[in-house]
Amino acid sequence: MVKLTKIYTRTGDTGTTGLVDGSRRSKAEPRMVAIGEVDEANSAIGVALLSIEGTLHEQLTRIQNDLFDLGADLATPGEIEGALRILPEQVARLEAEIDAMNATLSPLTSFILPGGTSAAAHLHLARAIARRAERAGVALGEQEAINPSALAYLNRLSDWLFVAARAVNQNGASDVLWVPGGVRTTR
Fold first, then answer.
1. What is the pTM of this model?
2. Structure letter (DSSP) for residue 184
3. What is the distance, to the nearest Å, from the Cα of residue 161 to the centroid of all Cα atoms in its chain?
4. What is the torsion angle, in degrees rounded to the nearest 10, for the CA atoms of residue 77, residue 40, residue 163 and residue 134?
5. 26: helix, strand or coil
6. Which contiguous run of DSSP H or E holds residue 114?
7. Count of Cβ atoms closer than 10 Å to residue 44 Cβ
8. CA 50 to CA 48: how far, in whole Å?
9. Among residues 90, 82, 89, which one has the least CA distance to residue 64?
10. What are the structural domains of the chain?
11. What are residue 108's phi and psi, to 5 degrees?
12. Is the Cα dihedral 85, 87, 93, 99 positive or negative?
């Protein structure tokens, strides 16, 4: 378990931060951007949790823990024995949960605007942030080797959050559908 007795260290005051392998990196480099985006997605899920109960709450809490694992994965460049990595089984679990939630939803007839219920709106925001985290992970992967399961997890997570948003929108009944050009007054 992690034990923190002092929150600030001053070691990052010059714009660098430490990674698991002991190296120091710029806080602006792609690896740190990806870690920050994962943290932001996790925080958005924390806000969504305020209005969600039951099984979905338990699953989201587990996902938050997974995202800390994913951050540790990204903070560990190279091959380090015993490093905490996202596993294919974690991706498969998201897929199984997506399938289970989606089985109760009516098929989509249009794209969905983020909204409906408060819980759905928060999940859509978390989804958009997870997509940004995925893009940051892809950018990192174009420069350095990273765990492919980490990218797959982020990709699946945004799908999971989308389906969960539909589920909390009264199984899609409160989804706000996109009407292409529907609000135009001229042209």
1. 0.91
2. -
3. 8
4. -40
5. strand
6. none
7. 20
8. 5
9. 90
10. 26-77+84-177 (1.20.1200.10)
11. -70, 140
12. positive
